[in-house]
Amino acid sequence: MSHELGALPTGWILADFDDTLAPGDSHAGLLRYILRRRRWPLLLLPVIALGGLVYLLPSRRRRGISLIWWAITLGLSPLGWRTLVRAYCHTRSGLYREARTLLLEEGKRCWVISASPRALVRAQLHRQLPGRLPHRILGSRMHYRFGGLMPRFYCHGQHKILPRILDLEVALALSDSPHDLPLLALGAEAWLINPSPARLQRVRERLPHIEPRQWRL
What we know:
Blueprint: E1 12-15, H1 26-38, H2 45-55, H3 61-73, H4 78-89, H5 97-106, E2 110-117, H6 118-128, E3 136-145, E4 148-153, H7 163-166, E5 170-175, H8 181-184, E6 189-193, H9 197-206, E7 211-213
Parallel strand pairs: 1-2, 1-5, 2-3, 5-6, 6-7
Antiparallel strand pairs: 3-4
């Protein structure tokens, strides 16, 4: 592997996507993008705000994000959804340099596991690495309900640890977020991407062997 990343032991690699492989929160960015393009869901701003408040409650996180998604995508057709995802991907800045190297050199053993909709993550990776997608891409699964899109399964935090993940021998797990401690704990090695000193200290209290990595475009 490239000297920038160092040698890794044999096994699978588990990676978050937003702010880990690519800068920024593409999930929140897509929601803002759809809202700017459609405009009229601003009339449902009280529902969106309520969803934001509910999202802050850990036990109600899925319900909060579902309210936000439903209000912003109400009446959006499947074709419109696919069109907006593709258009939004063209606005994204791309992968971190080290993440690109990791996926190019070790993509056959990489699982990308994200809270963002799977279609969004897949579209971004396809745009950045055409024909070189990682071994598996997992993300939130979306469906239509009451005329809008919302997560059927919200792949966030502990919910990233699917049964098939527990069966893997994990050489490396990487994320930018303390929410992904359950995922990071699975790796023989674990990297925290671009952490602040306070975040690194907080994560090390739970996972002493975590290593910080500073990645750039």
